Amino acid sequence: MNWITITIIGYTLLAVEAVMSKYILAGRMKGWRLYTFYVGLFSLFTLVLSPFGLKWGGTIPFLITFFSGIIFYISLGFLFSALLRSSTERVYTLQGASITLLTLLFSFLLLGEIVYLSKIIAIVLLVIGGFFISFKFYRGRFFSGWQKVIIAALLSSVSLIMLKYSYNGQSFITGYVFNRMGIFSGALLSLAVPAFRREILNNWKKKSVSQNTINLAGTIIAKTIAGIAMLLINYGIYLGSVSVVCALVSVQYLLTFAFVFGLSFYFRKIFVQHMTWQNIFSKIVGIALITAGTILVFL
Questions:
Q1: Which residues have a Cβ under 8 Å from the Cβ of 145 and sit 6 or more positions away?
Q2: How many domains does the chain have?
Q3: Residues whose CB falls within 8 Å of the CB of residue 134, separated by 6 or more in sequence, listed in order
Q4: Could you list the residue range(s) of the whole structural domain that residue 128 is in?
Q5: Which pLDDT score is estimated for 243?
Q6: DSSP 30-75
Q7: Fewest CB atoms less than 10 Å from the CB: which of 39, 177, 198, 291?
Q8: Any residues with CB less than 8 A from the CB of 77 and at least 6 apart, and which?
Q9: Is the pLDDT of residue 129 over 70?
């Protein structure tokens, strides 16, 4: 199996995870807080990596890494809140474009990276692509929750920059585990917020033990799939070309769109699709522009 096939499998799994998250959120839990909480708790399993290189790298690197995890957990709340009410392909495609764009800008402003003409063009393509994905031409307005997606991407970018900086003073395993512990701690701290805690408790009380078990199991399966996907994509980067791997992100976006389109015939209330040429055309154009912009960023 060559590295391109491995990468495509990785992006396919990410598309599957995106659809599963939407189904669990809108079809079963009907609340983003519980799903976010479960994802945060699942981060605890990262401790199994501890024997493979977890070492104390100092107080400052630890704090940076730990708080980057808490910030990332908050970003998940905004992302899943938007996903609950909006279409899967719009949310994840806009998030991907926004993270790429914001990380590029932060790298220039904070890390002093040189911005070449290709990256300026990439910024323009990402912005235009984001507009095509976000704007509902058949209704003349942006999709519901697009602001939350932007906030989620902003927080995620800040978290990534912090994590990248913390790796200068500690090993990969150490940084990764402490980051996940920050996410887990964010889940526990979220229980201190009355509205958050109330919805989680009410969700547990309203559903039977078997329903809660299925929801938790579904969350674990979805996030395990996402973890395997990222492992395959990173392995593809290790074996082959970074720019080609990043270009193949279009596979994820297009498959997410295809999966949602197919499932909309069976789960109309969850995967809502408006079968108008403006809607389909704008999504395809947006995906194409965002893919082109992503390729230019990594060239």
A1: 81, 82, 83, 85, 86, 91
A2: 1
A3: 90, 94, 142, 143, 146, 286
A4: 3-298
A5: 63
A6: --HHHHHHHHHHHGGGGGGGGGGT-----HHHHHHHHHHHHHHHHH
A7: 198
A8: 32, 33, 36, 152, 190
A9: yes
d(CA 280, CA 270): 18
The amino acid that residue 130 corresponds to is: G
Q: CA-to-CA distance for 90 and 87, rounded, in angstroms? A: 6
The amino acid at residue 34 is L
Burial of 163 (0-12, 13-18, 19+ CB in 10 A): buried
Closest by alpha carbon to 86, among 154, 156, 133? 133
Q: How many other C-beta atoms can be found within 10 angstroms of the C-beta atom of residue 122?
A: 24
Which of 24, 14, 29, 20 has its CA nearest to residue 207? 29
183-220 pLDDT, tens digit per residue, is: 999 999 999 999 888 888 887 877 777 888 888 888 88
Q: What are phi and psi of 171, to 5 degrees?
A: -75, 165
Using an 8 Å Cβ cutoff, are 201 and 91 in contact? no
What Rg do the C-alpha atoms of the chain give, in angstroms? 19
